[in-house]
Amino acid sequence: MKNSMDLLVKTTKNKEKKKEDNSDKKELLSVGRHPKSAVQYREEWSFIAYEPARDNISYQLQYLEFMINLYNDYKMYLTIESLHCKNMLITLASIFESALFDLLYQVNEEKGLGLDIREDFVSLIELSFKNGLIDGNMKYSLHELRKVRNFVHISSLEHQEYQAYTIEQVNLYLILLNNFQKRMEEKFK
After folding, report:
1. What is the CATH number of the domain that holds 139?
2. Does residue 57 fall inside a structural domain?
3. Is there a domain that residue 46 lies in?
4. Count of domains forming the chain
5. H helix runs in 112-160, sequence order
6. Does some domain include residue 92?
7. Are 60 and 91 in contact (CB under 8 A)?
8. Which of 86, 93, 101, 95 is nearest to 58 (CA)?
9. Which residue in 101, 93, 134 sits closest to 117, CA to CA?
10. What is the pLDDT of residues 68-122, one digit of tens each?
11. DSSP 4
12. What is the pLDDT of residue 28?
């Protein structure tokens, strides 16, 4: 019996050189549209002190750039567009959450505030606001993003996946991410 959906197929030529995996397949994006390297993102986000967090954020930024280029270069509509936006919003929320955790940890260590840094997004947003990392507008926007991310489960019948996530939402949070990065670069020079 054939599966109703194809399975992923990976080709590996050299186990030591992961970049050569799937090299027998068509290039999805032209060379000029490939995402920046994770190393470039690590440098841009050098205000994140904990190296494993900075690494993971850089990989998520690279993936986010890939999803942006994919959307901008290929025709997507209706359900595929909405769900592609959903994945970008989830990725954006993950980046903010990880960054806030690291930055709060830095502030706590530097100033000896004795903060109870919980790992839930609500607490991270509130503590970031109380300690001057983000302003009221960013606090509000991050809470809205958190609410959107909480819809990752498809169990809600009134929440229609094919129209729930929009390009406008994604662009709003991409702008917020750029502003966040600039603000943190200034604060953590």
Report:
1. 1.20.120
2. no
3. no
4. 1
5. 121-130, 136-149
6. yes
7. yes
8. 95
9. 101
10. 999 999 999 889 999 999 999 999 999 999 999 999 999 998 888 777 777 799 9
11. S
12. 83
In the prediction, which pLDDT does 67 show?
A: 97
137 assigned to some structural domain: yes
How far is residue 124's CA from residue 104's CA, in Å, rounded to a whole number?
8
Q: Which pair of tokens denotes residue 127?
A: 């503590």
Sign of CA dihedral 85, 31, 37, 8: positive
Dihedral of alpha carbons 86, 89, 95, 96, sign = negative
Query: Which residues of the chain, if any, have pLDDT below 50?
Result: none
- The pLDDT value recorded for residue 3 is 67
Spacing of C-alpha 121 from chain mean position: 14
Quote the domain boundaries for residue 148: 63-152+159-189
**How wide is the angle at C-alpha 70 spanned by C-alphas 52 and 92, nearest 5°?**
40
pLDDT score recorded for residue 2: 64
Burial of 68 (C-beta count, 10 Å sphere; 0-12/13-18/19+) = middle
Euclidean distance between the first and the last CA atom of the chain, given in angstroms as a whole number: 60
Position 129, amino acid? F
Cα–Cα distance for residue pair 28/180, rounded to 1 Å: 30
